[in-house]
Amino acid sequence: MLEILRKTIKAGCQTTKYPAVPDIAPEGFRGKPEISDKCTFCGDCIKVCPPGVIWFTEKSGEKTLSLSYCGCIFCGRCEEACGYGAIKLTQEYELASKTKEDLITSIRSKL
Amino acid sequence: MNANIESIKKEFNTNVLEVSTLHNETYLTVKKELIVKMCDYIYHHLDLPVVCIFATDERKIDGSFKIHYVFSEARDDSFIILRISIDEKNPKYPSITNKIASANWYEREIQDMFGLIPQGHPDPRRLMNFEDWPAGVHPLRKDFDIKTKPPRVDGEYIYRRVEGEGVYEIPVGPVHAGVIEPGHFRFSVAGEPIINLEIRHFYTHKGVEKLFENISIDKAVFLAERISGDNSVAHAVTFCQAMEKIAGLNIPPRANHIRTILLELERIYNHIADIAGIATDVAFSFGAAHANKLKEDVLQLNERVTGSRLLRGMNTIGGVRRDIGGSKDEILLSLSIIQRDFRKLMEHLSSTPSLMDRIETTGRLYNDIAKGLHVVGPVGRASGIDRDMRRDHPYAAYKEFNFKVIVSKAGDVHARTIVRADEVCESVGLIEQALWSLPEGDIRVKVDKIPDGYALGICEAPRGETIYWIRTSGNKIERCKVRDPSFCNWLSIEYAVLDNIVPDFPIINKSLSLSYSGNDM
After folding, report:
1. Nearest residue on chain B to A76, judged by CA atoms?
2. What total number of domains does chain B contain?
3. Quick check: A71 contacting B, CB < 8 Å?
4. Can you tell me the ipTM of this complex?
């Protein structure tokens, strides 16, 4: 019993102040992928995405590349495949949302 | 040719129709009428365990189904695979379960998935296709389209009945109190001791093997990684190894070292988590809190090193995707602190009577039963089965390192705890050796196309041996058989709980560390 008490005091408080204090993921963390305007709409990322959550739409003179975090497995293959550095995994991990629409990121361009 | 093949040929001469050797796998095509005799000979006379039984649908090639029986020979790192051919019009073959108990679930799986009937099977009930699944629909047959939604039908599952004065049945699950996966446990008790347990699983059968046949090879590794959440690396490595064997690829030594490190990191956090679980289940929350803290330390180390707490996205066919050589000092430092704290914690746990009283002699799994069911991994080793894929069928860089295979004879929860604790220390040693001798060079070779062929992949996951058998054709997966360690180990719980009291069931269950997800594929 004394030993338990000693160890407990020595261990102290192990939990962090998150979410009051932000907990920043380490460098190299595989988090939320983001698409930048370097995108040329070549479609290489669409081909390599294992769950198939990147897609391409064309509507009223505008082309759109969208990515849904709903099914994203954060494997980073899109980042690997992109020849323009347009898609990158970030350190962001707080992705919870009430609607699926909030979980879609897209980039648009005039045709 | 090795001595076993010679003696099989001598014993069965003309009945062995064809012999072909690929890498360390020898395929013997034999007559199906003789399969029981031959399996019996190899299993009992040559003393080789059956590690996997699976079927393939080759009706497109020669109009028949094939069943493969894989035997493992540890002495010279080889496999003997018996292959029988079953005509579509007469989909029956003799069951070997009466001679080899570990064939039980495999034969029932083949019956459900391919519609091939094992004649003389002692328990021919359905295993994976539940009673609401229509008869005659077999998902792994090639003519079953993946998008098929068969109608639900009425049916009933008959449980074994245990009757007598004062005998009560306690049904538990499939929905459990905690956030865990579904499984049904039906206890029969007379007073407090359990006199029978029947388990029922596969509630979340997802058709993973069918999925493999419908995705491209480069994406399949990510599917393999997600079969059993906490054994991600082991599944991914096994898959990659099978593919690399088919392609005849030698991956760079640096990649092999990194794979070894990842596999051992996975083993460390799994074993510590199991020990934390055992402490939780005996209500020793102090021990559980400290063990969980250590597990969290390993997970955070994983995250810093690979970008993923569960070490995902690291493996690929041809090597690894990220170099972890730069984190050498960090890994060494973190692990030495974790190991020091872990050792102290284990000393503490073993000097706590309230814990030891609950785990000593509890849930004993006897050696003959463990051997009969082919129980694998730390559970098997705690019951005296001296088997470890890292030593018996070495892969990655294990051949270059020294480590001890921990074996205990007691077979109780305590033995399983100690085996895991000692394995954690061996794993730390392995990581240190791998890091100190990390070779320079590339971490992956480029793979464009996988040639047609087939091969076995094998790996020692934290739960035990994981096996993949893959056949490729036209750069696609034709068949991918996945055998998770839990598929072998689940039945052992029916024996481990006998004569124990119901309140000890959670500890016994935890100490066997069984995966629902890896089992319900």
Report:
1. B313
2. 3
3. no
4. 0.91
